Automatic annotation (TrEMBL):
Lipolytic acyl hydrolase (LAH). Belongs to the patatin family. This is Patatin. One of its GO terms (molecular function) is transferase activity. A motif (GXSXG) lies at residues 62-66. The lineage of its organism: Eukaryota, Viridiplantae, Streptophyta, Embryophyta, Tracheophyta. The nitrogen atoms of the two glycine residues in the GGXR motif define the oxyanion hole, and stabilize the oxyanion that forms during the nucleophilic attack by the catalytic serine during substrate cleavage. It is an enzyme of class 3 (hydrolase). It comes from Artemisia annua (Sweet wormwood).
């Protein structure tokens, strides 16, 4: 299955390969929503008010809440009639994402019981039935499928029936057409965090064959999906995709990567071996300081990806081409995965805005803490990235072959087609 509706010119026409990655983290998706709003505003300052995030990235990857943001930023607005796929616009602007979270998170994660009741409830089923979330996302994305997105995306999930990760990738869909699932199903699946939301089952069909999925949160596979995005590009190199010419596409120097986290509650001494030696199943899942197993799953994989990429880009002396924006000092009592109280929401909004003012940081290999390594702030770094993205977009448009509309021969008389007017109706 070939995609014809991408609005991004191929990397072969430019100098860079552009990647955007968004972590998982439930309601903490408010943090990347604020960061992306800032980036899109800078792009609009350079290229006009119609500029959108999807115009600038070869691939956007998102896990869990990041997958939801990815889908909303790249889904086409089919309510606007347009004969040319390359002129389609995204259904949502980045500024819309924050509003959506503020309006809907309290309904997705209703805070209608106390901590003791919540713990008892989660022993016998998921904390939330997901009905509101399912209806909301199905209403927003309707019948839009993976193959309809306006640039390439990758959203990881995990299949509990096959015990295998499943990556819904625009690129992989060409080899495996059964992956061309509705975006709403993909979003519900990648957000189905065990104990919080129920797993999601759905079926896709291709060539009269059904393919069944039984999926949970993509964070079980990759909470930070940056390497998944870069791996999808690597597959295209193996398959000889002309969009990524060799050998240039093998060089990390050509990559421009923005990776946005949803924040971590890294508290020194939060857990210790003496305490943990007394925990059973209940203790590993529920703790006054949080959920140890959930923290381990998400934070370990998240930081390992950042450490790997930081080292690689630094070794190649192109560390300014990789930007990781992450807050690692969240208050565990306020920034829970699902704590949709007004106090927590306000706290996350403030943290997102404050993160823009912080200096560019990365994980220290020795102590695991986020430490600044450049004098510029994240906001200043994003402004520079916006300039690079804008320049790359213009370069590709300049170099891309233009399709000429054939002119009628001079000897023929052309007449206006008034018949088409009869088809117009006014609603």
């Amino acid at each position: 299955m070939q995609r014809s509706n991408t609005i991004v010119k191929p990397p072969a026409s430019g100098e860079l390969i552009t990647v955007l990655s968004i972590d998982g983290g439930g309601i903490r998706g408010l943090i990347p929503a604020i960061i992306l709003d800032f980036l899109e505003t800078e792009l609009q300052n350079l290229d006009g008010p119609e500029a959108r995030i999807a115009d600038y990235f070869d691939i956007i990857a998102g896990t869990s809440t990041g997958g939801l943001i990815t889908a909303m930023l790249t889904a086409p607005d089919d309510t606007v009639p347009n004969d040319k796929d390359t002129n389609k616009r995204p259904l949502f602007a980045a500024k819309d994402i924050k509003k959506i979270y503020l309006q809907n998170c309290p309904k997705i994660f209703p805070q209608d019981c106390n901590m003791v009741t919540r713990k008892i409830k989660s022993l016998f089923g998921p904390l939330y039935d997901g009905k509101y979330f399912h209806e909301f996302i199905q209403n927003k994305l309707k019948n839009i499928k993976l193959g309809d997105t306006l640039t390439n995306i990758a959203i990881p999930t995990f299949d509990i029936k096959t015990l295998q990760p499943v990556i819904f990738s625009s690129y992989e869909m060409k080899e495996k057409p059964y992956l061309n699932a509705p975006l709403s199903d993909i979003c519900i699946a990648t957000s189905a965090a065990p104990t919080y939301l129920p797993p999601h089952q759905f079926i896709t069909s291709h060539n009269e064959k059904d393919h069944e999925f039984n999926l949970v949160d993509g964070g079980m596979a990759a909470n930070n999906p940056t390497l998944i995005a870069m791996g999808e590009i690597a597959k295209q190199l193996i398959r000889g995709n002309s969009d990524y010419p060799l050998p240039q596409s093998l060089e990390y120097r050509r990559y421009l990567v923005i990776s946005i986290g949803t924040g971590e509650c890294k508290i020194e001494g939060k857990y210790n071996a003496t305490e943990a030696s007394k925990w059973g199943l209940f203790g590993w899942w529920f703790n006054p300081n949080g959920s140890p197993l959930l923290d381990i799953f998400t934070q370990a994989s998240t930081d390992m990806v950042d450490i790997h990429l930081s080292v690689v880009f630094k070794a190649l002396n192109v560390e300014t081409n990789y930007l990781r924006i992450q807050e690692d000092g969240l208050d565990s009592t306020l920034a829970s995965f699902d704590k949709a109280t007004q106090q927590n929401i306000d706290y996350l909004v403030d943290k997102g805005k404050g993160l823009l003012k912080k200096k560019v940081s990365t994980v220290n290999l020795e102590n695991g803490k986020f430490e600044s390594y450049r004098e510029e702030t994240n906001a200043e770094a994003l402004i520079e990235f916006a300039k690079k993205l804008s320049h790359e977009k213009r370069l590709r448009e300049l170099r891309s072959p233009r399709v000429q509309t054939p002119k009628p021969p001079l000897c023929l008389e052309t007449k206006p087609n008034f018949g088409a007017l009869s088809k117009l109706t006014i609603a």
